[in-house]
Amino acid sequence: MTGTGLLAFGEALAVFSTQEGKLRHATTVDVGIAGTEAMVAIGVSRLGTPAAWAGRLGADEPGALVLARLREEGVDTSGVRTDRQAPTGLMIKDFRNPDATRSAYYRHGSAGTRLSPEDIPEDHIRAAGVLHLSGLTPGLSDSAAKTMFVAAEFARDEGVPVSIDIDYTHALWYPEDAADILYDLVSLCDIVFAGEDAARLLGLDGDPQELAAGLSELGPEQVIIELGPRGAVAELHGSRYDVPSYPVRSVDNEGADDAFVAGFLAEFLAGSPPDRRLRTAAACRAFALTVPGETTGLPDREELRQLTRPR
After folding, report:
1. pTM of the predicted model, to two decimals?
2. What is the number of domains present in the chain?
3. Which of 138, 178, 195, 307 could be 145's S-S partner, Cβ–Cβ 3.0 to 4.6 Å?
4. Is residue 101 part of a domain?
5. At residue 287, what are phi and psi to the nearest 5 degrees?
6. 142: domain CATH number?
């Protein structure tokens, strides 16, 4: 990695998904990987920017799968720790149609839940252009939450910008527990991505512009409120932006938010102006919607040009 690259630090899982219908009726499954930090790393790499992912995986075939897929995408995995006492987390996904997919997670006792400050790849953080975290990994365990804080504080001390996608799922922790931890973690970050519900989880209220302003008051200089098919609003370096979405036929919502984050961060690392960061993010999200799977729709630069080229 160089100082222009991304380091995503957190959880990754192996994924087994049906092509259609419930797992009980399937005779074959698609094999892949998931984990929002890993997806962002792949998205950034496909856009031609150096990217690394670090975390803890089991010494098992699902862990080997995660590593192989990341390396195939050009993602640096030299900061990954192998845990011989715990398995890699799994996700089982039933795919019926874009509005009816069901995912089951098997994380209890996984390697990701055992993340500790000793797993923080300090040399990789020093060399990074941005450290990216998510709001999901702190919900895995107390030690994982502590690790995210230590990593963010270390990056700040080294002058490395910290990015976070505030994400919340009730399957991991209670809202009141998540709110306190994520509120404090956001205050250590320079770039924040959040949906409306995630922003309100932190006690903020109002329309999307007011939510962006409220998050900015916690310290981040760049705040993006993702609105799904309605686009996004952002407050970047004190200026406000409205981001329209690209009209596409949605096939699978999985990975769309990660694609948005990847597009923004790739442009941030390239030194692009705020409006271009947001346009690329919206285009990446649109691509991710058009095909099933967490990584399949993450675009490269040529695909982005095709979508954004004047017609």
Report:
1. 0.93
2. 1
3. 138
4. no
5. -60, -40
6. 3.40.1190.20
Question: Domain for residue 129, yes or no?
Answer: yes
Per the domain annotation, does 15 fall within a domain?
Answer: no
Identity at 227, one-letter amino acid code: L
**Residue 297 in tokens:** 């729709």
Q: Which residues are catalytic?
A: 258
For residues 63-81, one letter each, b for 16 or more C-beta atoms within 10 angstroms of the residue's C-beta and e for the rest, the string is bebbbebbeebebbbebbb
Inter-residue contact 211 to 204 (CB < 8 Å): yes
Q: Tell me if 27 is assigned to some domain.
A: no
Helix, coil or strand: residue 114 = helix
Show the domain range for 132. 6-10+36-90+115-308
Please, which residues bridge with residue 102 across strands? 94
* Beta carbons of 86 and 110 less than 8 angstroms apart: yes
Compute φ and ψ for 223, nearest 5 degrees: -130, 130
Cβ atoms of residues 5 and 129 within 8 Å: yes
- Here the tokens at position 232 are 């996004």
Burial of 115 (0-12, 13-18, 19+ CB in 10 A): buried
One digit per residue, the tens of pLDDT, for the chain of length 311 reads 446 799 999 999 999 988 777 888 888 888 999 999 999 999 999 999 999 999 999 999 999 999 999 999 999 999 999 999 999 999 998 876 555 567 889 999 999 999 999 999 999 999 999 999 999 999 999 999 999 999 999 999 999 999 999 988 888 888 999 999 999 999 999 999 999 999 999 999 999 999 999 999 999 999 999 998 888 999 999 999 998 877 766 666 677 899 999 999 999 999 999 999 999 999 999 888 877 666 777 888 888 887 666 54
